[in-house]
Design a protein that fits this description.
homodimer; mainly alpha; elongated; DNA-binding
DNA sequence: GCATAGTTCGAACGATCGTTCGAAATTGTA
DNA sequence: TACAATTTCGAACGATCGTTCGAACTATGC
């Protein structure tokens, strides 16, 4: 990896932490300069501007989550694996990644609408693929559910997982794996329960 | 109600919608002037400044949710009502209120850290009472759960409910009551499942 | 009609923001 | 060492922000 790319990566990570702490709009380029040790003008050698910086952070992080999830599920391919098990693997990966990359994921979750135009569209495209992935998993778990309800259930699950940036401390009493297990059990248990309640049984 | 208070209320509601649409920091006082029909300087007759405006919106809305929840539960008091039923009533009220006051609740959920100092503290105090209320309900449902896990479960539930500002359209295919039912079934079903999985049975 | 309190607003201020630019410093190559 | 490419940065610009101020307008009581 070229030294330029390494410095850019380091810059993105530092910036993500500041964005996560103070929020994107409240963070000034001067804050970022102070946090990264670069000069105010120096940052513009690596990034076109503040909004492109946010975009790079979001794009990089989202691509990693998506690729990671696809890779995890690729190891559990085929009809021989329980659909619920695949769903739980997805949840575990998402929560685990979230806990391991708190700053970036908070920026991804909280600043989802801080981009505009082309950049907004590109990030939304990745998001769509990720949501589709989860919806396919839910379809395998509950093939008879109406699509609307399945879609709503997907967003409810994302709510459980993405909200954690508001309260969760990965270094606290609950380690990431335990949290992932808790969320996975709550959702899969309740999702099955909801089905049996609504669709007979 | 004095005309002054009515105009203030109307002002807060209009401002909440703009904050919900564009975000607090991206909204300028000039945007609010245009959206409310008032002049730029005229708004300062009703509000000390931009941050106090956000505080008034959050404080008013949060007080309403808390009071509403307490009132709903007051109608289900005593040991004669199933704890799960009381929990479901809480969920139904929260989701219903959210759907009926989308703008304010989005501002409440998304701009939770946009206040500082005394105002931040006052809103946090109300939030604490509200979280405590839910945790007591969960304690009645699962008395043997460790407090940490119960607290985490509470935040997981809030995640399911508060995330909806990111995707839910109250005028869409899923009406608020159906969404509330879906969330209530997912959580209560899964919460019970999680308990039986973790604590034997 | 007059005085008082309540309400609105045009115009401007100071502060801070993101960004730019050309020069300086550093690194790589012979 | 000499030269070119890459990388850094001090200083400043124009724009926009939240807020202020005093004057002007309106409603109310006498």
């Amino acid at each position: 990896m070229r030294p330029y790319d390494e410095r850019l990566d380091h810059f993105l990570s530092r910036a993500a932490r500041v964005f996560a702490d103070k929020g994107y709009h409240s963070t000034t380029m001067r804050d970022l300069a102070a946090a990264t040790g670069m000069s105010l003008a120096g940052m513009y050698y690596y990034v076109q501007g503040k909004e492109e910086l946010l975009y790079r952070i979001q794009e990089r992080c989202f691509t990693q989550v998506l690729a990671g999830a696809e890779q995890v599920l690729a190891g559990l391919r085929g009809g021989d694996v329980d659909p619920i098990e695949r769903l739980q693997a997805f949840i575990r990966h998402h929560v685990g990644f979230f806990a391991a990359h708190m700053a970036e994921m908070k920026v991804l979750s909280h600043e989802a609408n801080s981009l505009a135009g082309e950049r907004q569209r590109k990030v939304s495209a990745i998001k769509r693929r990720y949501v589709d992935l989860l919806e396919r998993l839910l379809r395998d778990v509950a093939p008879d559910d109406p699509a609307v309800e399945r879609s709503a259930a997907a967003y409810v699950l994302f709510g459980m997982m993405n909200w954690i940036y508001n309260w969760y401390d990965p270094a606290g009493e609950i380690d990431p794996e335990r949290l992932a297990g808790l969320i996975a059990r709550i959702f899969t248990g309740g999702f099955a329960e909801a089905r049996s309640t609504v669709h007979g049984g």
